[in-house]
Amino acid sequence: MRYIGWRKKMVEEHVIAQGIKDPRIIAAMTEVPRHYFLDSALADQAYGNHSLPIGAGQTMTQPYVVAYLLNQLGLKGHEKVLEIGMGSGYLTALLSRLADRVFAIEKHRSLSILARKRLENQNCHNVVIKIFDGSYGWSDEAPFDAIVVSAAAASPPAPLLEQLAPGGIMLLPLVEEDGQRLYKITVDEAGKYSRQALISCNFVKLVGKYGGS
Question: In degrees rounded to 5, what are phi and psi of residue 39?
Fold first, then answer.
C-alpha cells in the first residue's frame, strides 16, 4: 500500500505540479507501478524525481521527464508507436496504455528479457519487442505515428526519419557542445521535416549503426 501513496505523491509533485494536465497521462502514471520495473533493492527509491540504474549501463528516466515526453507526444489512443531503447519497460508500459500498438526495441538482451516478463505481468498485450540495434528502427512495421528515442544521438538517424508517418512526431535527444537537448521532429503531409528544441536532458548515448557513437 505504501507504493500507492508514494506513486500518487510522485504524480502530484513531479507531473501535475510541473504543468502536465493530460488526464490520460496522469491516470497512466498513477496506475503503473514504477517500482515494479526496478530491481527490488531500488524499489523504495522508485518514486523520487531522479533516474535510477537498471543494469547494462542503462538508466530509468526520472518521472518528470517521462511525463514531459508523453505530453509532447500528445497520444490520443489510436497511434502506432515505436520506442527505441526500451530499457526497464516502464515507459513502454505507459505507452501501451496511451497508444493502440507499441513496437519496442532494446539492444541489451538481459534488459529485454526482464522487461518482457514485467510487461506481460502488467497485461501490456499490445506491445511487440525486438532485440536489435534501435538506430535502424523497425522498417517492417513502419510507418509510425510517433517515435520516442530514449538515448542521445549525434544527429537524427536517417532510418527513423524515413519511418515517421506524415503528421507524425519523433522525440529524440541530441548531443550538443554543451550537453544534450531533447528535440521534437515532425513531418508534414508533403514530407517536409521541422525541428523544435525542447528541454535540456541527460540520456545514455545511442550506440548503433546510425547513432553517431
Answer: -60, 145
Strands 179-187 and 127-131 turn out to be unpaired
The listed CATH number (3.40.50.150, 3.40.50.11540, 3.30.565.10, 2.40.50.100) that belongs to domain 2-201:
3.40.50.150
Q: Is the pTM of this model over 0.85?
A: yes
Q: What would you report as the CA-atom Rg of the chain, rounded to the nearest whole angstrom?
A: 16
Domain boundaries, the chain: 2-201
Assigned C-alpha cell, 137: 528502427
Nearest residue to 95 via CA among 148, 172, 23, 42? 148
Q: What are phi and psi of 138, to 5 degrees?
A: -140, 80
Question: Residue 168 has which C-alpha cell?
Answer: 507524425
Q: Grid coordinates in use for 70?
A: 508523453
pLDDT in tens, 9-36: 999 999 999 999 999 999 999 999 999 9
CB 51 within 8 A of CB 38: no
